[in-house]
Amino acid sequence: MILKNQHPSTVLFWILFVLAVLLWAALFELGKNTLWGWLLLIGLVIGVCVFRLRVIPAWGFGLRALSFLGAWVLFAALFILSGPPERPIPAVSAKDPKATEVITVKEGKLTGVYTEDGAVEVFAGIPYAKPPVGELRWKEPQPPEPWEGVRVCDTFAPMSMQPRNHPVVGSLMEIFGYHTFRVSLEDNWIEPMSEDSLYLNVWKPAGECAGLPVLVYVHGGSLTTGQSSYSAYNGEALARQGIIVVNFAYRLGVFGYYAAEDLSAESPNGTTGNYGLLDQVRALEWVRDNIAAFGGDPAQVTIAGESAGASSVNALCVSPLSEGLFTRAIAESSGITAKRPYHTFRPLEKALQTGTTIRAEFGVSDSAGLREIPAEKLVKTAYANDSMTVDGYAITEQPYLSYEKGRNHETALLQGFNVHEADFFCMGSKVDAENYVEALRPLYGSGAEEAAAAFPPAEQTPYYRYLIDRGGSAKGSFDLAVSAAWFTYSHYNWARLLGKQNVPVYTYYFTKDNRGLGSNHAGELPYFFGNLDKHPSNYDESDQALSGIMLAYYANFVKTGDPNGDGLPQWPTAQEAPDLVLELGEQIRVIPDPYLALYPLIDRFQEQ
Prior knowledge:
The chain is of the alpha/beta class. It is built from 19 helices and 14 strands. 37% of the residues lie in helices and 13% in strands.
């Protein structure tokens, strides 16, 4: 034995050293550190071992302890210095993909790349607006500049400015939340981020095509995070169904939803606070002007989104600026049809107050001063800009009023929600039977007692318990009641408003457990987009079968406004089956909306 007959301090050193090496190796993997960092780490470990065996033996315990601490300092410095660089994400997974034929859009010529099987063409990083930097920060998006030559569109553009976790934190989220983490030395990089991010991506069936329906997808992320490169809503599978898919980045957080009176005064349209939404309108205008070059029909555009993307879709449905730019809508897990939306929407007065607070935070007196703040510093503001507002231009009134007046644009709606929508958002709350009613009070007001009676205190199911969730004997019921208020009520209300207009509405309820996100918020996305193969270990044959059906529903709706088709379980409209939803889970069946008892309580709270 190497440690036999050694001094106890020597044994302690080697035990601690081995543990330290294992810890740093784990941190290097979680932190996506570079290959050269790994090589230096190995060299450092060898160097410390040699130094300890040949130089230190005669030293006393104090010097040995100091040497151990010194090794930690060296490891820490190496960890920081060898952090992952930024690298653009390729548009397709194939190595050295074949370039497409040249396509000509309004601003110039471009090429994309083929998927490995040659069935889909992908065009990534196409500019749809001028970079919103310098004097264009917090101004309406402008059409992009034309370019000379042929633009190569084979990588995704940088994601919009947003708070970014350290890669170690991101990896831990992948391990414990998304279950997508894989040990690899090929992912030692991070996605670029820039204020210059107004680019879009197009997926199309390979070869000549014309008159195809178009899906334009708005990503979620609380209007503060998110990127168009996310694998869950990659457009390849839908393109194989004969659909042109477009998604894009838009301004987020303080860059997308900061509001100020001086910005309203300098705008020719008097707008402020909705720059991210205006980017979405600009993307739709680009689609109208250019999608025919890819084989798409600008008269057959469906807009879709999940979470804050669904709230954005809801806003686009009532914005006068988007009239004529799309026909149908898909909204997953959010909306702003309530009289007082719980999130992603705020009064203009509150938006302006937050703007004043941010200017004080950075020590400037006006928005011109904020324009001088580097984006990398401004993005670290402590104050959330995660909501749209009534600015009189992009949104002219509370959305529910526009629906009551028939000033909305969608001719059909596919929408729905998941079982565990609110679980991740409620992890910091401990809810027991004793504090359950009061925990519901901010969401249900005087109806909190009735809500608690409708959903009696119960713990969270074991499958959806997480180490960092504070739990409690009523936590499961609380999460469901929060889901009803924050997420599902808007869909119930949206269907109710469209029912008065005889607009068909198809509502789903996603209940499928799996080894990934399960039926948490966003868990349905890879099913609808046919992307379970991006993380195959999280899904089994039953998931694949369900995804095939959900993908068909999605594609049929984009093509015709009706998700039903040959061989698919019948999905009735809300008008045909009031208060019923289509469960998408181990079974596909029509069932009563599980939150019917809570909606009247929320109605009442909305009037308080």
